[in-house]
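During the no-cost extension, the postdoctoral fellow (Dr. R.K.) reprocessed legacy sequence entries with the updated structure-token encoder. One reprocessed record is reproduced below for audit purposes.
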Amino acid sequence: MAWANIGSLKGPKGDKGDTGEQGKQGIQGLKGETGPTGQTGPKGDKGADGTSVTAGTGAPTGTAVVGSVYIDAATGNLYTYKA
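Re-encoded structure tokens follow.
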């Protein structure tokens, strides 16, 4: 006794069928790894001088931008620079 090939269950290739409907949204996958750091962007234009908050001991001296704040760390007094 021996095995004999008597044909195939697989017939000739058929025509391509119509595209089916889109399936429903699946669940969100796991978060991927962080990608590489991108390139540094171009340097921006210089901005206008702004106000600042600085601290020291004793009353402030010198000039500053109008609206700047100085904190006397020894006394807790606040100073603001006015024109």
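The two ends are 113 Å apart (CA to CA). Residues 8 and 14 are 16 Å apart (CA to CA). The remaining legacy entries will be reprocessed before the final report is submitted.
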